[in-house]
Amino acid sequence: xxxxxxxxxxxxxxxxxxxxxxxxxxxxxxxxxxxxxxxxxxxxxxxxxxxxxxxxxxxxxxxxxxxxxxxxxxxxxxxxxxxxxxxxxxxxxxxxxxxxxxxxxxxxxxxxxxxxxxxxxxxxxxxxxxxxxxxxxxxxxxxxxxxxxxxxxxxxxxxxxxxxxxxxxxxxxxxxxxxxxxxxxxxxxxxxxxxxxxxxxxxxxxxxxxxxxxxxxxxxxxxxxxxxxxxxxxxxxxxxxxxxxxxxxxxxxxxxxxxxxxxxxxxxxxxxxxxxxxxxxxxxxxxxxxxxxxxxxxxxxxxxxxxxxxxxxxxxxxxxxxxxxxxxxxxxxxxxxxxxxxxxxxxxxxxxxxxxxxxxxxxxxxxxxxxxxxxxxxxxxxxxxxxxxxxxxxxxxxxxxxxxxxxxxxxxxxxxxxxxxxxxxxxxxxxxxxxxxxxx
Length: 440
Hints:
The chain has 440 residues and is an alpha+beta fold. It has a domain at 191-319. It has helices at 4-14, 19-40, 42-47, 51-59, 63-70, 74-82, 92-110, 221-240, 242-251, 301-327, 364-384, 389-415, 422-434, and strands spanning 116-119, 127-128, 134-136, 145-151, 154-156, 166-169, 174-177, 185-187, 193-196, 215-217, 254-257, 270-271, 279-282, 348-350, 358-360. The strands form five sheets. Strands 10-9-11-13-12 form a five-stranded mixed beta sheet, with helices on one face. The chain has a three-stranded antiparallel beta sheet with strand order 1-4-5, covered by helices on one side. α9 packs across α10 (301-327).
């Protein structure tokens, strides 16, 4: 039997639509996921003084505040803390502070009362206040505790004579504070958080942004370089399909960029992780490496094209992580089982890249749709951009490689069609049509 709400949610996997539509069809699933989360970590959240406020957030009418919690590393961090009941991890207290910071914006946006004390001695470097344009930097803060209190729809920070209003940017799900520079609150001028890195981190035990080689930026030459790369890529995506650009900027909350020009055979070029949604990492100047293309200058037009294609690929992963979470009842660190019949959740698919790698069927939509949309974008570039002979050859070579990835996935999905839920089967048919796959 087909469930209409689940079908609408599944259809969002393959359709490009508005963030507001996605939030509406995922509302029930997001609420139920958070309710399970509160129940699973009730004791932990109570010990942090967050339980009552989060219960009010989850039961509120705000679709956005639930999105803020689901589409963040909130669940990942709770799992890390729960696995360390004896507080043996050196960063245990730091992780508690990060959990608190992730709860601030949902409470502020929903009007839920919350007074939160953050401990300076465990926040030794600048960190973002999620879903706001603020970066918290307590290194120069004179006291050990930083207490944040709501005040009649505004927010009061310590050391300030009056509360600060924020503007609600619905298109980006972002709280914008207009305050000037303060020693402990840095204004981030970008709509996303910017990190530089010397390597791409895929740790399953700590936040990627906490890798020793990652550094947050809000000004300076490196910040400007990364923002220029991202914004030029965004312009290409917007010219290609404005609605896709709107989706991607809604789900991609942070960029971690390795801007070095030196690669290596084993160097990771890009990634995004289900447990840490919102962040995508890449080494932009090395994205042409698989085809032997070197990019050494910021004004090389291929740089923006490759970064745009990678934002589409990884950004759609971000969208699909969220949709699967809103359908899936399993903890985030145990895989993604959305839209697959439970008895087939561990069915393996042969991965068409790398040696001895397999992927479970439950990751099919996330993998196939990201590769498929990337192919469509590269085909668009080939048709519309003024490319020289070398650039055309490069794009054609990349398209050939990406198509070799996609076709085996589609063939396997057709053979395993009975493993999908009824809603998943319908979406599978739409996907075949979108990518021109003829059912055998």
